[in-house]
Input
Amino acid sequence: MSRRARVLELVESKGLDAVVVLSQSNVFYLTSSDAPSAAILFRDGRLVALAPRLEYLRALEEVGEGEVYAYAKFFEPSEYEKVVPGDLYDALASLLRQEDARSTGVVGASLEAKQKLAEKLGGELADITKEFTMLRRSKDQEELRLMKRAVAIAEEAMRVAVDSLERGVTEAEVLARVLSVIARRGALPSFTPIIAFGEHSAHPHAKPSSRELRDGDLVKLDLGARVGGYCSDITRTFVYGTPSPKQERLFKAVLKAQQKALEAVAKGMPAKQVFFKAYDALKEEGLHTYFNHGLGHGIGVDIHEAPTLNSESDEVLVENDVVTVEPGLYLAGYGGVRIEDMVLVLEGGYEELTRFAKDPVI
Output
């Protein structure tokens, strides 16, 4: 079943005449384009996308099946434009009234946006964001195909990054090589790659700098590619030179924590419990105080999306969730070790999507 068909099934199950979808990633999920600012899916299956005029042509090319309108307060339309007058909320209300959509749902709207649209329509909106988010969590075969391609490109970039490690190279130089690989493969980076040497690797979200690589440095590489709008995310940590006993201890502890967490991943498992499998493993090693973030996150159109795998999560893993499992240890002034993999949640376990070697020795 296509993404649009799944959303239409949700609209029908809620007894709605239409649903207004807002926020870039939600709109992309429904339309396969991030050019529109909003989209409306009517109960009869008709899709209407609304884009600002400067994004109208791109929206026309990318949305595919469906109608595309521009919205503008001041305009003299060209021969190829269909423009609805007013701001986004004026345009949405106008299109909904034209179709006599009396029962309307909304997805991804801020409280302010919901109030504005409700005022324009003169009635309440049914917020179905939670149900829409659950649809996004369970990836279909096309989404998985794109994500696996994104993984392949990320792992190619990881190989180039590792091969670039030589004494004196800077974090920024390795970053440039990573970005070049991703671009040459026709992809975009999922986020600014983290290239961190030595003491910089103690920062979970370190920013690449002119820091040069030295013998004995921990090297943390965290990167991802975006293909067809879908993301990948992988982290590996290495030692430039021969690992010290302290470095080996950190690596073994993180690997143990990740493995314990992975063994717990399956449909129906509370995300919080997966987190504590890793946390407890680090606690057994006396290193849990250096684990200062959640265990992982969902990934798809957004680099970080539901579910969240941390100590506070009330979410339960569902079949075809794609999540990261990334325990880490961070010692101020010394360095950090993080190992991150993407996994597909299955009925009785998981499929590991990232397969890059985890050996710390370069």
